[in-house]
TrEMBL record:
Annotated source species: Delphinapterus leucas (Beluga whale)
Chain ranges of the O-methyltransferase C-terminal domain: 412-613
Alphabetically ordered keywords of this record: Hydrolase, Methyltransferase, S-adenosyl-L-methionine, Transferase
Phylogenetic classification of the source organism: Eukaryota, Metazoa, Chordata, Craniata, Vertebrata
Keyword Cell inner membrane: no
Protein name from the UniProt record: Probable bifunctional dTTP/UTP pyrophosphatase/methyltransferase protein isoform X1
Gene name of this polypeptide: ASMTL
Domain O-methyltransferase dimerisation span(s) in chain numbering: 312-390
Length: 634
């Protein structure tokens, strides 16, 4: 399919969508494009009458939106992106251009103009390819240290070369004859207010539409098919005669990263827009000019190495994590869930935080796809609503809190661990071991919240990786809050489940329980699986336990389980996936623990060494591998 190869070309490039439109983000995400969202601050105030056609206005607006983001990211030491995509959707009826209504009356005016008539929807798209010609060399990293958050003049020595490909798509739409009452009912739904022409064809607004001739997604806000053709034209291969090189020495300057708040940063001045004329429109509205530098880069004529996007992302990764942890710690996503969308100043007031830095934090969260920015302010994106609101069913807030409070510290001592071989985890978990979790209730709760939220992601996969219906009882060793026990009881109505964990854990597990009939078959038994007798069970379960123990402890535990397990009984082990022997596990799960990453085959051999036969291996999502062995007769 035309898109897949093209996606491959963009995969290692840093692509930015300069749009706050959730529909545009969804269309491109669903098509498999990986990108960051950096909403443009270009004020859509180009003089409409100065354009020969409505679509010329839309294309120019799209270009200015993209150039503003490209310039801002280049100017402010955010690592310059490789590609910035801008778009602008307008409705044209007669000689009138309709954009987003400013209020309900405006929405009524628009819809009345469209009522019973055919109109055109134009979406202009600009694909801006950036080549930083910085004297400090290509590319820049995202510097989010405190100093860079302080206001400071930051003249850029370098120049941002951009090469723009632009096009537009037209779709014809006809409204039915609509009653005044229906129009107002639709207006009062609130749907029209952030949509061109005052309607959303993909939602309630679809009821107004009699027919559509052309690309439906173009009406929604992004002509995906035309975009794919454009990318295919650009990358397979660009034709020199189609290329038009535009150099932007006059990218609108912005003062400092600090001053990029809405209230302070004016939009870029159209007068500073790209040099170079507006070429004549081709019949299909397609005015592609692919970038020459891109052609050279793609065909090896460029002597410079490819831009190290992945490496820079690795270098910057910790900053993004810290931004996420800080936002979670401030309960930002909870505030926006209950009271959003909010302007930055209102968020700062509610969080009692510094307005300027709150604005920056919100901006970076938007760039990370955690927030979306509209004219009404900042709101949670879907992923934030699902996983970052503290009381959500799938919340990972606990994991963020624990990583920030403890794992972060572990990784700051990585050098020591590497030099001295000491297990820095013991420096944190060890502290928990030595001082016993009971002496640090808050630490225990943070640990349990983290494990609870992570286990929720995989509990169902672990419980269903194999058919466990032949077992009447199970014991989840180190089962913590009982999230896996609950899934097992839910999946196997006959199964009695015991959660066996340290006393200071089981005494706090009550706060994590939810109602439901399956809880009648779950019990919590305090104990230490290295010291105390294990509860009797047909099936023993170890989920994310082995990874945390050095080999000597691990063999001791497996030996105790093997001795407790009757012939025909089972051992179910779920551990982070290590693809091949000795490979390091996905960093997102590694906590510098004393355990070794093990491949499925290594786990298989481990169980066989401790008397388990018929060892089978399965995957639980992309996080864990699950191994089930049956205890052989001695
Ligand atoms: O049927 C539909 N028609 C239009 C839309 C949405 O309307 C807006 C169009 O506005 P604009 O192009 O200015 O884009 P913004 O949302 O303001 O975001 P930018 O940051 O890119 O300016 C757009 O969101 C369409 O998706 C619709 O949803 N249905």
């Amino acid at each position: 399919m035309v898109l897949c190869p093209v996606i491959g070309k963009l995969q290692h490039k840093r692509v930015v969508l300069a749009s706050a439109s959730p529909r545009r983000q969804e269309i491109l995400s669903n098509a498999g494009l990986r990108f960051e969202v950096v909403p443009s601050r270009f004020k859509e105030k180009l003089h409409k009458a100065s354009f020969a056609t409505p679509y010329a206005y839309a294309v120019e607006t799209a270009k200015q939106k993209a150039l503003e983001v490209a310039g801002r990211m280049h100017q402010k030491d955010l690592r310059a992106p490789d590609v910035v995509i801008g778009a602008d959707t307008i409705v044209a009826v007669g000689a009138m251009i309709l954009e987003k209504p400013v209020d309900k009356q405006d929405a009524y005016r628009m819809l009345s103009r469209l009522n019973g008539k055919e109109h055109s929807v134009f979406t202009g798209v600009a694909i801006v390819h950036c080549c930083s010609k910085d004297i400090s060399g290509p590319g820049r990293t995202l510097r989010l240290t405190l100093s860079s958050w302080a206001p400071r003049a930051h003249p850029t020595d370098g120049r941002l070369d951009t090469e723009v490909s632009e096009f537009y798509e037209e779709t014809t739409v006809k409204f039915s004859e609509l009653s005044e009452e229906l129009l107002w009912e639709y207006i009062n739904s609130g749907e029209p207010m952030d949509k061109a022409g005052g309607y959303g064809i993909q939602a309630l607004g679809g009821m107004l539409v009699e027919y559509v001739h052309g690309d439906f997604l173009n009406v929604v806000g992004f002509p995906l098919n035309h975009f794919c053709k454009e990318l295919a034209r650009l990358y397979y291969p660009p034709r020199p005669e189609d290329l038009r090189r535009v150099r932007h020495d006059s990218i609108p300057a912005v003062d400092t990263f600090e001053n990029l708040s809405d209230s302070e940063a004016g939009g870029s001045d159209p007068g500073q827009s790209a040099k170079g004329g507006r070429g004549g429109e081709q019949a299909d509205g397609d005015r592609s000019q692919a970038p020459r530098a891109l052609d050279a880069a793609l065909n090896g004529a460029d002597s410079r190495p490819p831009f190290p996007t992945g490496l820079l992302e690795l270098m910057d990764g910790f900053k993004a994590s810290k931004v996420l942890f800080t936002a979670c710690k401030l309960r930002l996503f909870d505030v926006l869930k209950d009271q959003g969308p909010l302007q930055a100043a209102d968020v700062a007031r509610k969080l009692s935080t510094c307005a300027g830095r709150t604005e920056q934090l919100l901006g970076v969260c938007a760039a990370l796809g955690l927030l979306e920015k509209t004219r009404r302010g900042y709101g949670n994106t879907e992923v934030a609503t699902l996983h970052l609101v503290s009381d959500g069913e799938h919340s990972l807030q606990g994991l963020a809190e624990y990583n920030d409070a403890h794992v972060w510290g572990v990784f700051t001592r990585l050098g020591l661990a590497v030099r001295e071989g000491a297990d820095q985890t013991r420096g944190v978990l060890g502290a928990m071991e030595e001082e016993r979790l009971s002496q640090n209730r808050e630490l225990t709760l943070q640990f349990m919240r983290a494990k609870h939220s992570l286990s929720k992601l995989t509990a169902h996969h672990v419980a269903t990786a194999f058919d466990l219906s032949r077992f009447a009882s199970a014991c989840d060793l180190g089962g913590c809050t009982g999230i896996l026990a609950r899934e097992l009881a839910q999946e196997y109505p006959r199964l009695q489940v015991t959660v066996f964990d340290l006393p200071e854990v089981t005494e706090l597990s009550g706060g994590f329980q939810r109602g439901g009939r399956q809880t009648e078959r779950i019990r919590f038994v305090p104990g230490d699986f290295f010291k105390d007798s294990l509860p009797e069970a047909d099936l023993y379960v170890l989920s994310r336990i082995l990874q945390d123990w050095p080999d000597d402890k691990l063999h001791k535990l497996l030996s105790r389980i093997s001795s407790s397990c009757r012939p025909g009984g089972g051992l179910l082990v779920a551990e982070a996936v290590a693809e091949e022997e000795g490979a390091s596990r996905s960093p997102r799960l590694r906590t510098l623990s004393a355990g070794q990453p093990r491949s499925p085959d290594e786990h298989r051999r481990l169980l066989q060494r401790h008397g388990f036969r018929d060892v089978r291996v399965a995957r639980a999502g992309d996080l864990l591998c699950v191994v089930l062995g049956t205890r052989a007769a001695p």
